[in-house]
Amino acid sequence: MKFTKMQGLGNDYIYVDCTKNIIDNPSVVSKKVSDRHFGIGSDGLVLIMKSDIADFRMRMFNSDGSESEMCGNAIRCVGKYVFDNGLTDKKNLTIETLAGIKVLDLKIEDNKVVQVRVDMGEPILESKQIPVDSEKDRFISESVEVDGYNYKVTAVSMGNPHAITYVDDTASFPLYEVGPKMETHKLFPKKINAEFVEVIDRTTLKMRVWERGAGETLACGTGASAVLVASVLNGLSERAATIKLLGGDLIIEWSEKDNHVYMTGPAEKVFEGEIEI
């Protein structure tokens, strides 16, 4: 299997052109290639496919083999892949995902994509649609108990579910203890991505993320988008802010004009190769 390893802020995936060839067992392949000791090493596998309703279709699988609806860092890399490899000459692309069709604007330098702005769509705030097992219409700063401690959690879906908690210091927060328990909490029937956020000021937020099916990653685009929305809902930030992740910064804006969330960030190719699967 020919592949390209790419990363967006250190959120790294293995990308495979499936516009002509199909992988029959992507869940198994994802677990194999993601292994950082016996495989290539990644947060998961991304398939780039033909679409009947958009320019391309993206399917993404986590390192544990589970399929996710969307990934903001991955979709930026998909835009770079299809343009840099000559699969399209469009600078404005539509990508089909399990979370709907996303629109990408590509910034080009020397005929290569260096930055991508993604229309992440409208945030989903209704508890039942996220989903959260709660009778409340919206789950904003609600108590969630983990190991006897009540965390104030705000739930947002960006096509995939997120639980945002504000903490004093992300660096010292016990993410590896709390993250997996939040991910699998009974309140979240489809599990959840857990973000822990430190407010620097009203236009700067710092976060760490425990991703559903992958554990801690260096960045999460849908997570950063959900964090901005949650911070606005909690009165902690402006509608545009820099989100500081372990792998770098994303610029997130929640537009009052169309209610869409826009994410801007880099996409980079690491290397190409072949692997026996």
From TrEMBL:
GO terms for molecular function: diaminopimelate epimerase activity. Its main location: cytoplasm. Its EC number is 5.1.1.7. It is an enzyme of class 5 (isomerase). One of its GO terms (biological process) is lysine biosynthetic process via diaminopimelate. GO terms for cellular component: cytosol. It catalyses: (2S,6S)-2,6-diaminopimelate = meso-2,6-diaminopimelate. Signal peptide: none annotated. The active site is at C71 (proton donor), C71, C220 (proton acceptor). It is found in: Cytoplasm. Pfam families: DAP_epimerase. Substrate binds at N11, N62, G72, N73, N160, N193, E211, R212, G221, T222. InterPro entries: DAP_epimerase_AS, DAP_epimerase_DapF. Keywords: Amino-acid biosynthesis, Cytoplasm, Isomerase, Lysine biosynthesis. The record marks H162, E211 as: Could be important to modulate the pK values of the two catalytic cysteine residues. Pathway: Amino-acid biosynthesis; L-lysine biosynthesis via DAP pathway; DL-2,6-diaminopimelate from LL-2,6-diaminopimelate: step 1/1. Belongs to the diaminopimelate epimerase family. HAMAP family: DAP_epimerase (MF_00197). Homodimer. Catalyzes the stereoinversion of LL-2,6-diaminopimelate (L,L-DAP) to meso-diaminopimelate (meso-DAP), a precursor of L-lysine and an essential component of the bacterial peptidoglycan. PANTHER family: DIAMINOPIMELATE EPIMERASE (PTHR31689:SF0), DIAMINOPIMELATE EPIMERASE, CHLOROPLASTIC (PTHR31689). This is Diaminopimelate epimerase. It comes from Ruminiclostridium papyrosolvens DSM 2782. The gene is dapF.
